[in-house]
Amino acid sequence: MEKEKEPIREASEEVSRHFKTLIDTRDLDSLNQMQNLILGRLQDSNAVLSHFNEYSENCFTEVSGDFSRNTRILKSMKSDLDYIFQKLRSMKSRILATYPDAFPDDSEREVLDRRPDLELPQ
């Protein structure tokens, strides 16, 4: 079995020697140096991005509770304001039914509720 591997080893060494004559060793050294430089830069970039991701995750963890709480507060405020505007419209319609001249024209009716509906897509 060792005798079978010997000719293969000699053939591969011969091919290797011929291959080395095709390529200049200075070019190989230059390519190796460039690859090492690029590797270093990529490792530095990876370290910076890993640090940034950790920092971003910590920041998000700190503010996510505030975001959730503020979102609940805003939804509650919207619900309260919807109720208030509904009551105002109801009161105005009752006033108009009782006192038709209470509001001079219909233009003021539109002024009371010109806020956009934030739940509808724009």
TrEMBL record:
Residues 19-103 form the KxDL domain. Coiled coil: none annotated. Pfam families: KxDL (PF10241). One of its GO terms (biological process) is lysosome localization. One of its GO terms (cellular component) is BORC complex. Belongs to the KXD1 family. PANTHER family: KXDL MOTIF-CONTAINING PROTEIN 1. This is KxDL motif protein.
